[in-house]
Amino acid sequence: MVLDRLFLFPLEDRDGVGIVMTEMYFDEVFPHRYLHGDYRPVVQAILQYNNISLPYLMLVDSGADVTVLPKDVITILNIRKEQLHAVSSTGVGGASSAWELEDMRITVGGKEFSCPVRFVEKYSLKFGLLGRSMVFSEIKLACRESVKQIYIGYSR
Hints:
By secondary structure, this protein is mostly beta strands. Helix content is 3%, strand content 63%. Strands 5, 6, 7, 8, 9, 10 and 11 form a 7-stranded mixed sheet that branches.
């Protein structure tokens, strides 16, 4: 759904005065999706590499440092191992072997950007994790659990 309207969001005032309202403009809204027994803030993304585009569901994860995908995506996007750096990745599920690509093109809604991506060996989720690194500087995100929606705005 395309938007070009104003939303008011409560933010905690840094001076300790209390809650203040701020104006934020967003371009799109996505409904949460029912996955793994709960409604989750998931957006449809397009992963792009080597002239291959792959639609992929991504959980908006403000707690993740980087964007994370399962190792199988390496083969689907025809990424050569020499383009990757071996790293260790630790998350809620524990530590796992991983490979990092420094620059992958991702499109969310109407915004395309580049960000680092980790491909993790032990990965059981049916969606990727859209982490903070390079992503949150390109798009602004707001999640409203009460209405189960994600609001996305693009840097203008």
